[in-house]
Amino acid sequence: MPDFDLSGLPDPDIDPQFYDGVAFKRLLAWFIDLFVILLLALGASIATIGIAAIFFPLTLLIINLLYRIYFLRARSATPGMMITGIEIRNNLGNRLSPDEALWHTIVFTLAMIFFFVQLLSIAMMLFSRHGQGVHDYLRGTTAINRPLP
């Protein structure tokens, strides 16, 4: 199992404000992002005169990957995360690099396929020290409340 040194992240005991309410905010952000991704997929279906609709699951997958990679690379947060005031940080406490954004998205997407993994992620987000889901644990990342500039 991965053993990332998370000492670069805010300490949950010393700085709990970075983790307060993050699990709920992640859920809310996921629903916001899902809604946006569905709208984009619908738009792609209309723009391609229905061709993208024929392959709708593939269209959703591609748009999901591009959406998450783009925003995690640019802001270390998807639009849903930005709205809810959270962002993903690596084990050093930094925003994600382009490679980290890519791999975070791939591992997150693979984890979403399996219901049991999602249940485990929810439990881990609620009860682990840094509120990491399975995909975060495997990549050495976590979500925190966005620090003030």
What portion of residues belong to β-strands?
5-15%
Number of extended strands: 2
H/E element sequence: HHHHEHHHE
Query: How many independent structural domains?
Result: 1
- Helix share, percent: 55-70%
Taken from the alpha-carbon principal axes, the silhouette is elongated
**Overall pLDDT level:** 95
Largest sheet: 2 strands, antiparallel
| SSE class | mainly alpha
The stretches of 5 or more residues where confidence is low (pLDDT under 50) are none
Radius of gyration: 16 Å
Note the total helix count: 7
Strand order of the largest sheet: 1-2
Compute the separation of the termini in Å. Answer: 35 Å
Task: Walk me through what this model shows.
By secondary structure, the chain is mainly α. The protein has one domain. The chain is built from seven helices and two strands, in the order ααααβαααβ. Strands 1-2 form a two-stranded antiparallel sheet. The radius of gyration is 16 Å and the shape is elongated. It starts with 21 loop residues before the first helix and ends with a strand.
